[in-house]
Design goal:
Layout lengths: L1 H17 L6 H20 L8 H20 L5 H9 L7 H24 L8 H27 L4 H4 L7 H19 L1 H14 L1
Length: 202
């Protein structure tokens, strides 16, 4: 419980910090809403199902990606402006970090749920289904961005964050898919150890 309390404190610390004089309050709100909704869902379901600290850490990391993007807007994060200028890129690519995490972290969440709840009996379909779910989440988020942009007009442009790149939507979904696959390839064993240690403590 102590580590969970630390995660909660760090969550609200990042949230409050990101809300101090952001670039645009409307964009900030749109960008941090997923983190707030995720926090509420995790809080409500905590007694029924609590994740390992390993998974919670990456969820918190994803939240900080959202907080940073909300504070500056995804098109104007200073470090990625420097990367754009230094490497002669055509746009600020911080949003691609966000979409990578949009695949990486849901893959970690879904994988732990599947393992501990024994959702899938045939393991040969395991990774394929996880990646498919993450891609579906990414596609659904693109629909939300599209809908917000239509409803708010210019007010939603910073939230949409295409920066004139015509393949932005497709590349966002690609990065989410790469994020999900990266998690499964490089972090599955670490998550397995965390799950094993978590269950042994019960």
């Amino acid at each position: 419980m102590k580590s969970i309390s630390i995660f909660i404190v760090l969550f609200f610390f990042g949230l409050v910090l990101s809300g101090i004089h952001p670039k645009e309050y409307f964009t900030w709100f749109l960008e941090v809403v997923p983190a707030l909704l995720g926090f509420l869902i995790l809080l409500i379901t905590f007694k029924k199902f609590s994740f390992t600290n390993f998974t919670y850490f990456f969820i918190l990391l994803h939240c900080y990606v959202l907080f940073l993007g909300g504070h500056y807007t995804y098109a104007e994060v200073p470090l990625f402006d420097w990367i754009k200028d230094t490497f002669h890129q055509t746009r600020n690519n911080y949003d691609k970090v966000g979409h990578f995490f949009q695949g990486f972290v849901p893959a970690m969440i879904v994988r732990e749920l599947f393992i501990r709840k024994e959702v899938i009996s045939n393991k040969s379909y395991f990774n394929f289904i996880i990646v498919s779910i993450c891609l579906a989440i990414s596609a659904a988020y693109e629909w939300i961005e599209w809908w917000v942009s239509i409803c708010t007009g210019e007010g939603g442009d910073a939230f949409l964050g295409t920066q004139g790149y015509i393949w932005d939507t497709q590349s966002d979904m690609l990065l989410a898919t790469v994020g999900a696959i990266s998690m499964l390839v490089f972090f599955s064993k670490f998550q397995d150890k965390a799950i094993s240690a978590f269950l042994n403590k019960k």
